[in-house]
Write a structure and sequence with these properties.
By secondary structure, this protein is mostly helical. The protein has helices at 16-25, 51-57, 61-64, 88-92, 96-99, 122-137, 140-143, 145-148, 153-156, 169-177, 181-187, 222-227, 242-246, 269-272, 304-307; strands spanning 191-192, 239-240, 256-257, 313-314. It has 2 domains: 1-160, no CATH class; 235-314, no CATH class. A two-stranded antiparallel sheet has the order 1-3. The protein has a two-stranded antiparallel ribbon with strand order 2-4. The termini are far apart. Mean pLDDT is 83; it is low at 1-20 and 22-44. The protein binds heme C (10 copies). One heme C binds next to α6 and α9.
């Protein structure tokens, strides 16, 4: 449906209006390469005067903000406002019926609004953007949970904002949290990655546009994702602790937890989830905090790590039990 009839309406009818806004946006410098495409009459449903038509009714700051974005670059032929492009309609779709006369009391026919009000399928909305961005977004998009659950590009991206919040480390997490409250809650626990302190983005760990990796992680494995920043935990160690090289998530909650070190559980429970009493007794505490049947010095202060301090692996020649 889109761009089937390009070029036809950026013509001599292009009024000072649009030029004015573009000129302001460009600090009045660049020569505008918007040439006449005279005389074509077509049956296309794109408006003849493009943005000028739209702006005759939509002159509010929100709509005009598009001219402060990367999309309003007249000298870039790939841009919606580049030469021969469809301007507003490159994204909003053909708009002549929307822009035309409407009988008193009748509803104005919608074009693509990117919200619930226009009954446009998300796939159609996304295809407007994909026309130009298929290669940026990548084929992984179609395999991802967002595409599957009909999340639209516009759910994350603000096209009319000078600064698109989802692209900024300081504001991204809030955009995601609009839908992912659960992860936000985890992140607000006592020990967490500083996602809502404007220091880290969700996309430090997650691919932004989808892929076939479990949980849409940014790297092929969970551990590779963590090693980006915690390279010291990669080893190689002389004495490895098997679960560490296997999956950091066996002991850590990636978004946050109420246990120090973002652990999924506290020691000794954490360790006892996998370790029996082999080697030395390590029976668990009762609810009252006292050791159960067999008191054990190994459980004092609940601290397996008091002795096994090198829980991620040891490089000490005699560190086989991860004690040094
Ligand atoms: C004759 C005036 C007029 C013209 C021209 C016009 N619009 Fe509209 N537009 C409206 C009105 C009025 C509404 C609100 C309709 C409603 O609430 O149902 C609207 C709604 C919209 C919305 C949805 C806003 C929202 O909050 O959901 C978008 C997007 C939009 N127009 C884009 C465009 C584009 C792009 C063009 C140019 C192709 C255009 N309009 C041309 C009058 C116009
Ligand atoms: C790059 C794609 C794109 C272009 C170009 C574009 N829009 Fe939009 N527009 C959107 C999206 C997406 C939304 C939904 C809100 C958002 O994501 O910011 C939107 C929302 C709107 C709205 C309703 C909400 C608001 O912010 O006021 C109006 C009105 C509108 N656009 C008018 C226009 C007009 C007029 C033009 C041309 C001057 C234009 N748009 C160009 C993508 C675009
Ligand atoms: C007519 C082509 C075209 C359409 C349609 C289009 N874009 Fe773009 N978009 C571009 C160009 C060109 C750039 C600038 C790329 C560059 O500078 O490398 C861009 C840049 C972007 C950027 C990066 C912005 C930045 O500040 O770097 C985002 C995000 C984006 N577009 C999202 C969208 C979304 C979402 C839609 C649909 C609502 C959309 N685009 C529709 C051509 C388009
Ligand atoms: C889950 C949220 C989300 C959705 C949905 C989404 N994006 Fe993005 N997009 C991002 C994030 C985050 C970035 C990264 C910005 C950065 O790091 O600079 C980004 C970056 C971009 C860029 C800039 C170029 C690049 O690759 O860095 C373009 C273009 C873009 N997105 C287009 C789209 C289009 C088109 C769609 C719909 C098919 C879409 N996005 C859907 C979150 C999203
Ligand atoms: C408009 C709502 C919405 C927004 C905004 C959104 N998501 Fe999602 N996301 C979903 C839905 C729906 C799913 C699929 C169901 C689920 O797993 O919860 C999903 C799934 C995911 C998944 C799981 C993927 C998988 O394969 O299991 C990750 C990771 C994710 N989103 C990250 C993000 C990040 C990061 C952002 C912000 C850049 C974001 N989302 C923004 C709605 C959204
Ligand atoms: C430190 C890395 C990291 C950061 C930062 C991060 N995540 Fe995750 N996320 C993960 C890992 C690892 C998983 C997989 C957990 C698992 O498999 O149990 C995951 C899983 C998810 C899932 C899927 C949950 C499920 O059960 O399928 C969603 C949704 C999600 N994250 C959203 C977010 C959002 C939103 C943000 C930002 C507020 C964020 N993540 C920040 C590492 C991270
Ligand atoms: C983009 C960089 C980055 C990535 C990727 C990353 N982290 Fe972190 N991590 C940090 C930063 C920064 C801190 C320090 C937070 C602080 O001091 O408040 C941290 C702290 C931690 C802590 C200690 C928390 C505490 O309270 O002492 C653990 C455990 C942790 N990360 C585990 C992981 C795991 C597991 C992964 C992979 C799922 C991961 N990290 C991925 C940057 C990252
Ligand atoms: C067998 C359980 C276990 C596994 C698996 C594990 N850790 Fe840990 N990690 C711990 C314990 C226990 C602590 C100490 C918590 C404390 O400070 O009380 C810790 C602390 C940390 C810390 C903060 C203190 C420090 O040493 O820097 C980071 C960061 C960390 N782990 C990252 C990782 C990464 C990355 C992985 C995966 C490569 C991983 N961990 C795998 C148990 C584990
Ligand atoms: C997810 C399961 C798991 C968790 C949780 C876990 N471990 Fe391990 N641990 C293992 C496995 C598997 C080995 C390797 C056993 C082997 O090679 O026979 C191992 C090895 C060890 C060894 C060396 C034993 C030897 O004979 O070489 C020590 C010491 C150890 N773990 C301590 C701990 C401590 C302390 C904790 C809690 C912080 C902990 N482990 C948590 C699975 C786990
Ligand atoms: C007081 C110091 C200390 C504490 C506390 C401690 N350990 Fe140990 N642990 C050791 C020493 C020393 C060895 C080596 C024993 C040997 O070589 O025979 C050992 C050995 C192990 C082994 C290897 C067993 C084997 O068969 O070789 C595991 C597993 C282990 N400890 C787990 C734990 C767990 C889980 C906890 C917490 C519940 C814990 N330890 C608390 C000192 C301690």
């Amino acid at each position: 449906m889109k761009n089937a009839e390009p070029y036809r309406r950026i013509g001599s009818g292009m009024r000072a209006n649009i030029l004015k806004y573009l000129a302001v946006a460009l600090l009045a410098s660049a020569p505008l390469a918007l040439h006449a495409q005279s005389g074509e009459e077509t049956v296309s449903k794109y408006t003849r005067k493009g943005a000028d038509t739209c702006l005759s009714c939509h002159e509010d700051a929100a709509a005009l903000a598009i001219f402060a974005t990367a999309h309003a670059v007249p000298l870039d032929p790939r841009s919606p406002f580049g030469h021969g492009q469809l301007q507003c309609e490159a994204c909003h779709g053909p708009g002549d019926t929307h822009a035309g006369r409407v009988r008193r009391g009748a509803e104005r026919p919608p074009l693509i609004y990117f919200n619930e009000r226009d009954n446009t399928a998300v796939e159609v909305e996304n295809s407007m953007c994909m026309d130009c961005h298929a290669s940026d977004v990548g084929i992984g998009w179609h395999a991802g949970a967002h595409a599957f659950d009909e999340v639209s590009c516009a759910d994350c991206h603000q096209s009319h904002a000078r600064v698109d919040a989802v692209t900024q480390t300081s504001t991204q997490a809030e955009v995601c949290a609009a839908c992912h409250q659960l992860q936000k809650n985890e992140t607000l626990k006592a020990f967490a990655h500083p996602l809502f302190e404007e220091k880290m983005s969700c996309t430090a760990c997650h691919g932004m546009h989808g892929d076939t990796v479990a949980a849409q992680l940014a790297r092929v494995t969970l551990n590779d994702t963590c090693y980006q920043c915690h390279a010291d935990k990669r080893g190689p160690y002389l004495w490895e602790h098997a679960p560490v090289s296997e999956d950091c998530g066996l002991c850590h909650a990636p978004h946050g937890s109420n246990h120090p070190g973002m652990l999924t559980q506290r020691a000794p429970l954490l360790c006892q989830g996998c370790h029996s009493q082999d080697g030395h007794p390590s029976v668990a505490y009762e609810d009252d905090g006292l050791a159960s049947a067999m008191p054990s010095r190994y459980l004092l202060a609940q601290g397996c790590m008091n002795c096994h301090s090198q829980v991620h692996g040891s490089n000490h020649p005699s560190g086989t039990k991860l004690t040094r």
